[in-house]
Every structure is written in structure tokens, then in C-alpha cells.
Write a structure and sequence with these properties.
Six copies of one chain form a homohexamer. Chain A is mainly beta. Chain A is 13% helix and 36% strand. Chains in contact: A-B, A-C, A-E, A-F, B-C, B-D, B-F, C-D, C-E, D-E, D-F, E-F. β1 of chain C pairs antiparallel with β8 of chain D, so a sheet runs across the interface. Chains A, B, C, D, E, F: InterPro entries: Cupin_1, Germin, Germin_Mn-BS, RmlC-like_jellyroll, RmlC_Cupin_sf.
Chain lengths: 188, 188, 188, 188, 188, 188
């Protein structure tokens, strides 16, 4: 539903046809489906597919559950800042800040978070979340976009279809072609 | 801290001087200070005062705790959409949707929320949160502004300094001047 | 008509099919239809229904006429700042400014306006216009949105369909249920 | 005054120090100072210099008075759409619409306006207002910018300091250098 | 293709159906078609018609080739800033800057550019490019809009259909009607 | 220089003090300084440091020169779309497009570019440029931000200060700690 200007693509209900259910979603007290990886995390995403009324509102949310040593591998959200709040467990978070005058240098801003701690990841910054503890950990993430997007860096670099050229990856990462093949096997 | 263009007013640290603490805040596993009212709620707000790095990032958060029958009275957020997630208890939420062709008519979109339920309040809509249950209730709210603002309607109408003219309130609410005086006594 | 990117929902004419009539509207030298209330005002709105070319242009206008003691009751425009210019009569205007550090406190910025006086109401602020004089009064209002919206507070609080819960209104306004019933009778 | 983020450059009062006078201006029931030209019009502009509270609000206004055969010569507003309302007299308005596929072709959208008529000029379109009648004419203009800007085309082309190269003007307008000199004498 | 919200009007491919060709265009190593004028320039424009993937991305480009003494006559781009880079030849560029306090006065910012020189024209400023040399000249222009638009001032003023009123042009430019007729003959 | 609202941080000259030099820069007909790496490319960036007038204008540019087999390793621009135009040589370009429904899958959109070919990289997409040929290659890049930013992925992942935790990199890339050490040695 859009109160201002109607927008197409995603359906944009006439306000007269909308009702409270369009602004409601449930099921965020439990974890989402495990991801099809061995990384040990799952995401339960609250987006426009679950709550149609979010369309055009510029906000969304997700719940992430991490097993002990579970990792959300290095990734970026190209269209949103992420505000993290830890509900349970111990989560290590960090994002990489480029040196504005030398793109080959950067700093890591990282922190160990406990329940009730919050951390913010500015839009498009490379970041990770990692469960350092021996018990499950859960955090909520708010995004200031209805569609933040997610670019999982290792999967994008080594698992794309078609693959990035061998020469590019060998030179870009200064790794043997054999290691590149190993990486491709992991992430395709 | 601002990655793009530096902005004044709120301090805007040079990226070189910022560190991880600027992006961190804690203490959201407990309720905030009770409000100086008899409404039975408290708010623990995560904003730029608690987390300097939020400056210019366009996002913030709050935790609200409601005692049994606690009420966040009718209010609006003039600069943000609010996405609510219930952590504990039973919370009745609702917002008022104007009829776009007749401003004297409107619909209420309301819902009773349980833990794990979410509800979204579009920017500037009049809304309320009410603990219908006999136990404490807690929800998180995300906002897509670093400074959503809050206009508590009864306090704004009947408690402003100086007060809104008697004649305006008497006519506007079709109430005796005596009732207006009673309202002013409550909300000033 | 849209010069930049075509936008759907509201029709968006191809520039080739548009003509001068799309950018023209008339009839703002007289008052609009009286509102179906006893408040004593009428609005003559210049919006995209009257002038199709306004679509996507981010501006609109209205002429308001107030009988003696006519009142535009407390309301907000959720999507626009309003710039008022008095053409005739004496109009009392005011808007409520929240204390940014204490949402239970607020100030009223008010003024008595005569012909040629202007006043601005920032977006989403609760405000009123009131004809203090014994003759008709007229003002123009400009808005920086093609669809500013209007939330008439008393009608939204006490006249929505379905109604806001009794308990919420009784507690929120500290009024007897009988007074709430009276208010509902006035504004439904 | 800025309710959201403080912005510098133009002063941006802390909300605590602002008062109703910051949102008020007067004197728009009379014409402004005549312009230092023989074009026969004057402008009374309501901008941030007259009303400090406009700062950051994205709106402004002007009253224009045209003598009989007074002309606001071809101009553009680079940062705002203009919504015109005629208060008195007969005003011819028009703007030029480029053919999106051939920049050497364009259409004129024009109209003769009477009191109560409105016309909208999309941002940055070349336009003129002309008093076709034998009596004074007045219109109000609303702008969706606090600083719409105005580029008077003849004065910019033929009166800039330093002047645009002779060859450029001779070739650009296919006029004798003598005519260019005449134009410069008029508009410098 | 649109990664964020789908937008209609221009087609907006589902990301699943897009491919590399949508983001590719060729042929900018040669000049575009000569314009149907005697001004001596041609434009080779890289826009959404040549590269469908540009849709919603807010950027475009053009290559301009100027014969000796070729002139891009005074014009504005209503929706983009233009960043010019000279590849070959000697190009005189200039834009007109209004005096913010007196719209009848303005300054010209101009420069003679050689290969490797860059110049920026802020959005909606009247500007010209002129080949001062005796050899061909070429520049690239980047725009921060997918659809910058172009208003060729002489063609808009003297070649519109229908024409701007005689009286308006005579008075606006302080020229004899005969000269206006001459101008119309050149630019229609 | 800022025509609209003055903005601080970067200096924002009063228009009265600006002159043509603020909008001019030179030296883009030659390559920039080689980067302090063995990647074989250099960048000559046209930004606000070289052209002060770019401030607030939302546009910038860069010239990139690649030696044979030179590579701009995987990187993103967090604040701008990049429009590439090849001036000389043969350049392989590609960006990775996430599957919007499965973040562990992605497609590569790639292309071999020759002089006169253009390619666009949407904001924040991981991409590479690679000189496939045996001669030098040069491309221009336009950005729709005055400060696009650049995140060199390998340098951010393996060269940050302090480093990202061993466990995170080992698990995130499924590589031996020894290989991680090798990577760190390359990119720190």
C-alpha cells in the first residue's frame, strides 16, 4: 500500500482495498530456515513478501540465528544501513572502513556484542557477524530500505555463473589456480 | 561519522578520528526509565545521543516496555515509518488511515500482537500501542530516520505552553470549557 | 505529465500527448463546497484531480474560506509543509512544537494574521486555523507535495471505523467513558 | 529552524531558541519594489530572508504585480516548480516544452489567465508572464524550494560580466554583430 | 533493469531476464549524426535507448564533436549537472551565474579547454561550447541523470510551435518586430 | 560552490567569491600515478580536491590506465553507479548480480570492451576491469556522486588494521590458516 504516489512493479494496493493484515506479519520469535551452507546460521527475513504493506515504506527487518561458531560470511547490503541488536548469546561483529585517501588501506571497526548491545553497519560496508560463544546466538537487524539486498562476497567472487576469469582471480587474490579451483568448489 | 559529505550541527567526525565505539551502544536488554506519567510505559531509545555514528545514517531504534494496561497514548512520528516487533506479552496496536477523498472519515487498522509478531506504522500516521494483557509486554521499534520525532497528541493539544485558545479547543472537540480545563490539568 | 521518468498509478501522459489544459485549472476566486460539518469552513483544493499536469511535480495549493468563528480543527499534513497567505479577514494560526528532549512537553507557536501576512507550518506539525473576526476570512495555502494529505485529529481519534478501543481512549485522554461516547457521537 | 538535522550555512536555529516570529512574515498585500527595468513588473518575494523559519523547509512564495503590458521576460527557475494563481487582471502565461527526441523543436503551452485561474510551470522550463490587459494584474507564485533561483534569459545572454564572446552570440542567434551590440546595451 | 524497486514507463526488466547486453553500448569512438542545423556540431548520446540497463541508474553520457567554429548554442540541461572532458581540439566553454540578490545581473564563468581539461556546468545553468580552433574538437560529457534533457534557448524562444506572442518577444528582447521575424525564420 | 543551500564540511564558497577556476581541472590526457601495488593500473581521479566547484554537484570522474594484464581487482563503489567508456585497448569488465531470492547464487555480467564501447556498473556491485590485451588500455569512468568511494575487496578482507579474526576468514573462505596468512601478507 502506498499513501503517496502509486508505484508499480510490486503491487501497490489502492488504500481503499488495504486492511490491517497488509501491515502485519508473524513468526519472528523463531529462527528461519537454515541456509543451504555449512556456515551455521539462518535468517528469518521480514520483507515485502511477508508484509505487503511495507511496499514503498523504506524499512525492513531480519532475525538472524547463529549456531556456536556460526558465521555470516563477509557481505554487504548495497541499499541499506543495518542496525543490529543482540537478543541472545555473544556475537562478534565488524565492518571494514576504507581509508578515504588510500583505497589499499582500511581499518576494521569490530566489537563483541552481548544481549542488549547494538551496533550499526553503514550502507555498503563489508561486514561479518560471528558467534564466538558455545551457545546459540540471535540478533535482530533493522534496515532502512524495503529491499536492502545482500552480496555474499565469497559466493559472488568464487561461485558466480559464469565464473569470473581464472586470470582475474589468480591475479586479484595472488593465489595459485589450484586454490582458486578449491574456492570455486566451495562456493558454487 | 559521515562517509559521504560532512554535515554540521550534530558533530560529524572525520572518519579518521572515528572508532568502533562510535557505532556501538548497550543497555537495550532492559527497560528505559519510566515516563513521568501514569500511562505505564517506558522507552529505551537508541539514537544519536547513545550511538554517535548514527549521525546521517537514517536509522534508529527504541525498546518500549508496557506494564499491564500500559498505553502509549495516540501519537505520530513526523519523520519516520515505525516497524514494531513484539518480544514479550500481548500488545494491541492500531493506526488511523484517512479516507483520501473525505478527511472527516477514516479507518482504523488494528491488530493484537503476540511475541514474534510484527506490524508497521507508516510515517506520520496517528497510532497507539496498548498492553491488553496482565503481564508486562515489550516491543522493539525500528525507524528509518535518525530522528523520528514524537508528537504525543493529548499532550500537544491540551498541554502546550502557551495553551491553545479555549475557543479553538471547545469548538474543535465539541466539549464544554470545563472538560477542556480538566484535560489541560491532566496533560500540562 | 512527467518530464523525467514515467510513473504509473496516477496516469502519466506521454509529453507528446499533453497540452496546456493539463497545466491549467480555474475557479479559485471563489470558495469551495462547505464541509459536511458545523465547523464553518470550506476548502477549494488545487490538486492533481483538477490539474493533471501536477502529477510528479511535488506541489499543490488550496484556498480556505472561514466563516466568522470558523475553525479548521487540529490537523496535520503528513507529506507537506504548508505556507499560508491571508487574503481577507483575521485568522489565528498556531502549530505545536514538541520539546525534542521531552515528548510530554511542547510549545505553541501562534500568531494573529491579517491580509498580506504569511505563516509556515512545518510538515506533520499539529496545527489549527481559526477565524477570530466577525467577517469572512480567506487564506491560500501552498504545499510542497502533490498530495499533502490531511489528518483531522478529532475525527481520526473519535470517528474512525472501527472505533479505537474504549480503554485506549479513556486512558489516553483521562476522560470518562461517557465523554468518549459524546466525542464519538460528534465525530463519527 | 530545522526540526530534523541541523544544517549550516543559512543559520539553523536550535528549536529551543525559535519562536513564532521565525515562521511569520508580512506585507504581501501590496506589491514589491519595482524592478530596475522598463519591463513593468515588481516582485514581492517571501523567502528565508523574510521568514527565517523557511530554512530547510523546501517551500517559498512570491507575489508579482504587472502594469498594463508589463512582462516578466523569458526566464527559468532552476530549482523549483512554480504554481501560479491569478488574483487580479488578465495574465498571459506560457512555457516551452522540448521535443524529447529533437531538441531543435519545441511546443509552447500557453494560456490566458483570469482571477482564480491557476497554471503550473515545471522546474527549469523557459516561461513568461505578460499582462495583456489595460489594468494592473497580480499573481501569486508558489515554489517547492526555499531558494528557487531565477535566470532572466535576455539578461544572462546579453548582460553578463564579462560578456559572452561576440562570435558565440552572432552564430548562436544568427544576428549581425550590430544587433548583438544593441542587445548588450539593453541588458547590461 | 532495476535492482531496487521496479519502475514502469520505461520498461524495467526483471533482474532474472536481464543480461550483460542490457548494460553495454558501442559506437562512441566516432561522432554522432550531424544535427540538422548549420551550427557545426554533432552529438552521440549514450542514454537508455542505447543501453537499456541505464534505466533508474541516474547517469548517462554523450560525445560531442565540433567542426572548426562549431557551436553548441546557448542551452540548459534541466535535470543534470554536466561534467565535460576534452579529448581533442580547443573548446571554449562558459556558463552564466546569476547574482543571487539581483536577477538582472550575472557573471560568466568561462574557460578555454585543451585535451585533458575538464569543466563542470551545474544543473540548469545556461551554457555554451564553442570550437575556437581550426581543427575538429571532441569532448565527452557525463550527466548525473538518465535523462538530462536539453533546452536549446534560441530554438525554444524563436522556434516554438505555436510561437511565443510577438509582443512578448519584442518587449522581452527590445528588438524590432522585423528582427523577431528574422529570428523566427532562423530557428523554426 | 553551492548554488542551493550552503553545506559545511567541505568548504562551500559563497557564489560571490567563486570563479571559473573552481569549475576547472586539467591533466586528464595522461595517466595518474601508478598504484603502490603490482596490479598494473593507475587512476587519475577528478574529484572535489581537483575541482572545488564539484562540491554538492553529485558527479565526478576518473581515468584509469591498465598495463597489459593490468587488473583493477574486485571492488565496489558504495555511493555511485559507474559508467565506463573505453578510449584505448581491450578491457574485460564484469559485475556480479545477486539472485534476489538466493544470496548464495549469483550471475556474472561480463563483456570484452574495445575503444568506443561503454558499460555500466550499478551502485555497490562487485566488479573488475582487466586488460586482456598486450597493449596499454585506457577507460574513463563517470560517477553520479562527488565521492563514490572505493572498497578494494581483497585489501579490505585481508589487509585491514586490525585484521579480521583468523577464525572468521578460515571459515568464511574455507581456506587453511596458512593460506589466510599468505593472503594477509599480500594485501597488508
Amino acid at each position: 500500500m502506498c499513501f503517496a504516489v502509486f508505484v508499480n512493479g510490486r503491487f501497490c494496493k489502492d488504500a481503499k482495498l488495504a486492511n490491517a493484515d497488509d501491515f502485519y506479519a508473524s513468526g519472528f520469535n523463531v529462527s528461519g530456515m537454515p541456509t543451504p551452507t555449512n556456515l551455521g546460521f539462518s535468517v528469518n527475513a521480514l520483507n515485502v513478501n511477508r508484509m505487503p504493506g511495507l511496499n514503498t515504506l523504506g524499512i525492513s527487518m531480519a532475525r538472524a540465528d547463529l549456531e556456536p561458531f556460526g558465521l555470516i560470511s563477509p557481505h554487504i547490503h548495497p541499499r541499506a544501513t543495518e542496525l543490529i541488536l543482540v537478543l541472545e548469546g555473544t556475537i562478534y561483529v565488524g565492518f571494514v572502513v576504507p581509508d578515504t585517501r588510500n583505497p589499499f588501506k582500511s581499518r576494521l571497526f569490530d566489537k563483541i556484542l552481548h544481549p542488549g548491545d547494538a551496533f550499526v553497519i553503514p550502507q555498503s560496508m563489508v561486514h561479518i557477524q560471528y558467534n564466538m560463544g558455545t551457545t546459540n546466538a540471535t540478533h535482530l537487524s533493522s534496515f532502512n530500505s524495503q529491499n536492502p539486498g545482500v552480496h555474499m562476497i565469497p559466493y559472488q567472487l568464487f561461485g558466480s555463473n559464469p565464473p569470473i576469469l581464472d586470470d582475474v582471480l589468480v591475479k586479484g587474490f595472488q593465489l595459485d589456480k589450484k586454490v582458486i579451483e578449491h574456492l570455486r568448489a566451495q562456493f558454487s
